[in-house]
Specification:
Helix content is about 15%, strand content about 30%. It is flat, with a radius of gyration of 34 Å. The protein is built from two helices and seven strands; from the N terminus they run βββββαββα. The strands form two sheets. Strands 1-2-3-4 form a four-stranded antiparallel beta sheet, covered by helices on one side. A three-stranded antiparallel beta sheet has the order 5-6-7, covered by helices on one side. Keywords: Membrane, Transmembrane, Transmembrane helix.
Amino acid sequence: MTEQNPYGGGAGQWGPGTPPPAQPPTTPPPGYGYPHPGPAYGYPQQPAPPPHGFPQQSAGPAPVGGAPLLSIGDITVVGDQIITPAGNLPLRGAVWNATDLSHTEEKIPTHAIVLAIVFFVFCLLGLLFLLMKEKKTTGYIQVTVTSAGRHHSTMIPAFGPQYFAQVMGQINYARSLSSM
């Protein structure tokens, strides 16, 4: 059985009057700065998009009132509701409190003491290593909200001495939302 060339002639040849074989158009590779198209869905572990017209399935119920306005620990303010793990509370008239249960210690690190002893033998400038200080903050900031006779409290880890001021800024914003 022989293969016939649709353009005439032998394999890979074309005769006079027959057009050359159609070749797929070649597109140049994207230039510098253009994004490279990503891999097809399913690699690596990408879910396929839902068919057009079907809504995406979410893990839980949609929040009431739109996008979150504020989030402090596990307390979230959305619209006119305060969402907590214990249930929803009304935002209007809510009372917000924060208590700083953290403390900051300042001490000379061990390596500074060792360097001061080593360099004291060679020169008196080694005592300058004792001026090195290390601050370490431990503890939590407790945030409580009370509304409509219900109460919820959360503990936020304090990462530094300035962190309580940041949480208080969020609490003051929540208080302004509650008074509207």
